[in-house]
Amino acid sequence: MKQFIFTKQLFVILLLFFFCFTTHFAQTITGKLSLLINQEIKLEGFNGLKSYSISKSKIDKSGNFQLNYSKLDYGVGCLISSDNKPLYIILSGEDIEINGEALSHTESIKVIKGKQNQWFEKYAKEQPRREQALSAWLYLEKIYSIDSLFLVQKLPTQAIQNEKKRIKNEEQEFVNKIPVDSYVRWFLPTRKLVNSVSIVAQYRPEEIPSTISAFRQLNYTDIRLYKSGLFKDAIESHFWLLENSGRSLDSVFIEMKISIDAMMKTLVKDEKKLNEITDYLFDLLERHSLFQASEYLALKVLNEINCTLNSDLAKQLETYRAMKKGNLAPDIIFYADNSVQSYNISNSQKKLSDIKSKYSVIVFGASWCPKCNEEIPQIAKLYNKWKANEVEVIFISLDEEKEIFQKFVKDFPFISICDFKKWGGAIVKDYYVFGTPTLYLLDSSRKILLRPNSVNQLDAWVDWNLIKGNKDDDKKN
């Protein structure tokens, strides 16, 4: 009797396991790729800025394969084989079947089963041709509206307008026929928006305002966008278009602030995505030297959002609040105690405020930092030029061992100090340093003038503001 009960319980457990397993992997992707016999094929999905593995299989000797996915993978998937040419598919809860030669031979791929993927395939093949035709008509339109030889021809001009309208309507009608609740109905115009920015910037500048407006309407908490593989591209394309819209730099920064505000309206409701996007966008703006926009983003998130930030991001953003341009930088004590080691400091220089120079560059770095090994020796080469223009350099090392610190700085001509406490040192904390190298340019009263993102940027500032300025003054005299 006990054995019967145990067997029955085991059967129930196995049945539940089978049910959960088959429910989790409820949909299949099958097909035949005749040129990829005995090779591996895998399916990846997207979660925001990252991709993840869903399923993988080996294509058999006849070219057949089968992969599985679940409702948790709802969005866009990416099929990848040994040729490393991805094929994007819609993971909408339907079984999918494709036939072709290889993923890299996109012209051979045919969707046999899966309605949403058939719509996607049809649109992907037709839309580039529509875009090419539209660009051609736009080119002709400019000729007929500018060139005096054609300006008087009203009939061709009207025909061009009609054909442009017909092409746009044809695309919209295709999308409108797709069921409203289907994933691909949302995905196609969003994908077009993201992919169109370079064409709009170069050939259709009149569409820039509407394109920027469409980006601002994107909801970054929408799971459809998060799972689309477009998450990162949407951020980059949006701010690339703002940067390359032909506006003045001041106007670009104003527009970027408006875009940041638009993004934050929905992001404040989702802490995970807020952290993810803020971290990525902040880094993107820094890499493009768009410091006014990155400062605005930092202050916006810190001052106006009641969300929990991860500690690394919070520290990074706090740098902008505490150490923004115009603020007074903390004084630096060079001889706090005997544990601090220094080079190239005179007896009269006990702290940063003792240095008699119009400008000071504070550099945080370490021997273990690869970028520091490129940038800081470059500073050493430029030091004589900077020094001649009253720019002093103070290097704060985050090294932890005296021998390593000494070896690293022994040939540097500028002031170098180290307390061997790495990130825990007082100076590092006072300056809110979260990464290396970090640079600050200060005036004689320690007011922050610039937070350079590279030695080249700082050197350009010296050339433009000091060397060129001195030459201009000489000419006036």
Helix/strand-derived category reads: alpha+beta
Poorly predicted ranges (pLDDT <50, ≥5 residues)?
14-24
How many beta strands in the DSSP annotation? 14
Helix residue percentage = 40-55%
The number of helical segments is 17
What does the largest sheet look like? 6 strands, mixed
In whole angstroms, the N-to-C terminal distance is 111 Å
| Lateral strand order in the biggest sheet | 9-12-11-10-13-14
Sheet-strand content, in percent, reads: 15-25%
Radius of gyration: 30 Å
Oligomerization:
single chain
Shape: globular
Number of domains: 4
The overall average pLDDT, rounded, is: 88
Describe this structure in words.
This protein has 477 residues and is α+β, with helices and mostly antiparallel strands. The chain folds into four domains: 2-113, Carboxypeptidase-like, regulatory domain (Immunoglobulin-like), CATH 2.60.40; 115-178; 179-322; 341-476, Glutaredoxin. It is built from 17 helices and 14 strands. The protein has helices spanning 2-24, 115-146, 148-151, 154-177, 183-195, 197-203, 208-216, 223-226, 231-243, 249-267, 271-287, 291-304, 311-322, 370-388, 402-409, 426-430, 455-476; strands at 27-33, 40-47, 50-58, 64-69, 75-81, 87-91, 96-100, 110-113, 341-343, 359-365, 391-397, 415-418, 438-443, 448-450. The strands form three sheets. It has a six-stranded mixed sheet with strand order 9-12-11-10-13-14, covered by helices on one side. Strands 4-1-7-8 form a four-stranded mixed sheet. Helix 2 (115-146) packs antiparallel against helix 4, helix 7 (208-216) runs antiparallel to helix 9 and helix 11 packs antiparallel against helix 12 (291-304). The protein is globular, with a radius of gyration of 30 Å. The model is unreliable at 14-24 (pLDDT under 50).
